[in-house]
Amino acid sequence: MLDLSRQERYRAWYQRRRPGWRPAGEVFNTMLEPLLAPDARALDAGCGRFGALGRFRERVGLAVGVDADFLSLLENLILPLRVQARLEALPFPAHTFDLVLCTWVIEHLPDPPTAFREIARVLKPGGALLLITPNARHPLIALSRWIPAWLRPRLVHRLYGRAPSDIFPVFYRANTPRTLRRRLREAGLREAAWFEIEDPTYWAFHPLPFALASLYERLTAWPPLRGWRIHLVGMFQKA
Fold first, then answer.
1. Phi then psi for 154, rounded to 5 degrees?
2. In terms of Cα–Cα distance, which of 90, 89, 105 is closest to 46?
3. Smallest Cα–Cα separation from 129: which of 106, 159, 157?
4. What tens digit of pLDDT does each residue of 164-179 get?
5. Whole-number pLDDT of residue 160
6. CA distance linking residue 237 with residue 235, whole number of Å
7. Residue 47 · residue 67 · CB < 8 Å
């Protein structure tokens, strides 16, 4: 099983071999830091049991979590304000938030265009959406999409040790670089920053598959292949 501690050890090793490389989470946090302010209103869109905003809740004026899964909201003890709702129908007035975080959520959306329009609606003019999501073009993600839905939770639990309660259906309906950027642009959000980020540690079950994955990631350093990297990270702003 590839638990988080093992994956982090491989990430540290890979970072030593690839100076300048940063995991997607670090890139995301680097973009987030300048946006944290005492008067900022922030929404964690799809906060789940943990979310991304909880660790920064003391650095914003208002921190709100929203998720469609009621049990996840009950178990979320980090965010004091939590609302059950689908991202396609956010129960907030227009121009409510300065910042929306969407981490590991877009792949689960059955209707991304509607969700993106709702996010744009609740953002204030000049507000920002920060996102991180898997790239459906990456071989690992493409392979996982062929796995039957009934088998996927068991396999993810066995390979990565993720609790069944943390495994949700995936659709990948906006999870390629071109589609995701186009859909967000159509929703009225302009691109402020964009990254396609490599990470071979999802294959770190054994040194051999990790070595092959590292070779693949080196190949994607060639600009025409960067759109095949595993993680997509971006910041989009409302005009």
1. -65, -40
2. 105
3. 106
4. 666 788 999 999 999 9
5. 66
6. 7
7. yes
Domain limits, the chain: 4-238
Length of the chain: 239
Q: Is 143 helix (H, G, I), strand (E, B) or coil?
A: helix
Band of pLDDT at residue 63, cut at 50, 70 and 90: very high
CA 16 to chain centre: 25
**Contact between 138 and 109 (Cβ < 8 Å):** no
pLDDT over 80 at 157, yes or no:
no
DSSP 8-state symbol, 202: G
CATH topology of domain 4-238: Rossmann fold (3.40.50)
Token pair belonging to 178:
């071109």
- Provide the pLDDT for residue 82: 97
Q: Mean pLDDT across the stretch 85-96?
A: 98
* Cα–Cα distances in angstroms (integers) from residue 185 to residues 87, 129, 191, 238, in the given order: 17, 12, 7, 10
Look up residue 34 and give its amino acid. P
Question: Please, what's the b/e burial string for 36-55 (b: 16 or more CB within 10 A of its CB; e: otherwise)?
Answer: beeebbbbbbbbbbbbbbbe
The 10s digit of each residue's pLDDT in 211-235 is: 999 999 999 999 999 999 999 999 9
Ramachandran angles phi, psi of 55, nearest 5° = -70, -15
- Structure tokens, 221: 């350093």
3-state helix, strand, coil in the chain (%, to 5): 45, 20, 35
Whole-angstrom Cα Rg for the chain = 18
How many CB atoms within 10 Å of residue 155? 13
